[in-house]
Amino acid sequence: MLIDDTSLVPLQSWLETHFPTARLLVVGGSVRDALRGHPSKDLDLEIVGARPTEIAAAAPWPVQQVGKSYGVLLMNLEGLGWLEVSVEPGDYADWEQLCRRRDFTCNAIAWDVASSQLVDPLGGRRDIETGILRAAGPDSLTEDPLRVWRAAQFCARFEWRVAPELLTDIASVLERMAELPRERVTREWEKLLTMPRRPSQAVQLLSDWGVIERCYPELCALHGCEQEPEYHPEGDVWVHTLLVLDEAARLGRQLPVEQRLVLGLAALLHDVGKPATTVRENGRVTAHGHEHAGVKPARAWFARHSFGEAVELAVLDCVARHMRPMQLVREMDRGQMSPSQQVNALRRLIRDLDHVDWDLFLLLCEADQRGRTLPVAEYLPARVFGDLLRQHPVAAMARTELLRGRDLLALGVPAGKEVGRWIAAVEQARDEGEIATAGEALEWVRRRL
To answer: Distance between CA 196 and CA 178 in Å, rounded?
Structure first.
């Protein structure tokens, strides 16, 4: 049996008794993934031949109506929990026409629970088997241009190619991209960056189709932005960014989806400061300060989306500081820093990451290092900093000031703003390596008082 629908028997039996003309269907991704040999844990359900208000009023299970204009119910079914159920009052005989309102043929296939048969009026199963993404109807993209993002995501996830007529449809809706609600575009970016094993394929398709050029000047500027071949033999910044995207997806594969999203966004945007800073100096290509220059275009990119402040700030931390780990390790390797200076430098770096977890930040930096055609046997900062973190309480030091207000009051510092100024001065002296402990800080303040 293609779909294990035993858990749906109570719902099916209830429908047969109270709505005998209605049909219960498993639809969408549940059937698509089963046909691909990857059964989904989720069930996408549709009831055809009844009205949402009638089902909601008569159902013996808890029901919430969440989409009145679309006839969507949330039903708490025994053993399954809360499920989203689409209720369509149309006749089951007209289901082929209902299918044409869906996005793609791969999602216009149903499993009829009553007959245990596959219903495939648009040939979606054939398209899945041949790896073709085809629109469910001639107006599929016209009705919802957001499906362009979904097409890129599906092609990357399933390694499919786009039907020629779908390419024509994509070109016809490009001018409407800017009209789309930012919340919906954001949700598609979330899936596009976290679901494919190689998100670069989806991003490259968006570029090939003209979406990047039309909607994202910060990313479009990466095309043709040259890099020093000694360090980036892979090509321009766009090519490098795509490689970093895939490395980030690989390194973060076991992380929760929220962290994978931050990692993917940071990979996508980490070098958006290079177009503004890239110059040729003495025959070499440089982009000094590109990490800090990248904050402004990254903010502009986020302003057109709704990822939320926490995600945005975490990504901006990565963009602004992604060069520091390798720079710090190179300084250590040249013997320019004593052991205490190494600890202090790492403390400052961790302290400056206000909004992103250290381990996640380091994964982004590693993806940046590996996202090129140069072999990287070992990412040195992971080992060097790992050793320092095991030997010293660096993380705790990064979050704790050496002196507190009461310490300064005991020394005779007047209460109020003066205390804050002394705390800032002590931390600056700590950053510069003059002092390292609370005792040294107290003595440093006494001398100056």
So the answer is: 25
DSSP assignment, residue 106?
A: G
Assess if residue 244 is contained within a domain. no
Say if residue 393 is in the same domain as residue 410.
no
Q: What share of the chain is helix, strand, coil (3-state, %, to 5)?
A: 55, 10, 35
Of 130, 154, 171, the one marking the end of a domain is 130
CA diameter of the chain: 90
280 and 340 within one domain: yes
pTM of the entire predicted model: 0.89
Q: How far is CA 233 from CA 112, 219, 371, 375, in A?
A: 54, 20, 11, 11
Cα gap 305→300, rounded to integer Å: 9
Domain count, the chain: 3
Whole-angstrom CA distances from 35 to 7, 105, 112 are 20, 13, 15
Q: Which residues pair with 81 in a beta bridge?
A: 77
Which uninterrupted H or E stretch holds 443?
Answer: helix 438-448
One digit per residue, the tens of pLDDT, for the chain of length 449 reads 677 888 899 999 999 999 998 999 999 898 999 999 987 777 889 999 898 889 999 999 999 887 555 688 999 988 888 988 989 887 777 777 778 888 999 999 999 999 898 999 999 999 999 999 999 999 999 999 999 999 999 999 999 999 999 999 999 999 998 889 999 999 999 999 999 999 999 999 999 999 999 999 999 999 999 999 999 999 999 999 999 999 999 999 999 999 999 999 999 999 999 999 999 988 899 999 999 999 999 999 999 999 999 999 999 999 999 999 999 999 888 887 888 888 888 989 999 998 999 999 999 999 999 999 988 889 999 999 999 889 888 888 888 888 888 888 888 888 888 888 888 887 888 878 888 888 888 888 888 88
**Beta strands, E only, 317-408:** none
Axis crossing angle, helix 380-391 with helix 358-370, rounded to the nearest 10: 160
Which residue range(s) make up the domain with 88? Answer: 6-130
CATH number at residue 82: 3.30.460.10
- Report yes or no: 106 and 32 within 8 Å, Cβ to Cβ: yes
Cα separations in angstroms, 132 against 107, 135, 188: 12, 10, 20
Contact by Cβ (8 Å): 116, 135: no
125 and 34 in one domain? yes
Distance CA(26)–CA(74), nearest Å, equals 15
One-letter amino acid at 114 equals: A
* Separation CA 436–CA 446 (nearest Å): 16
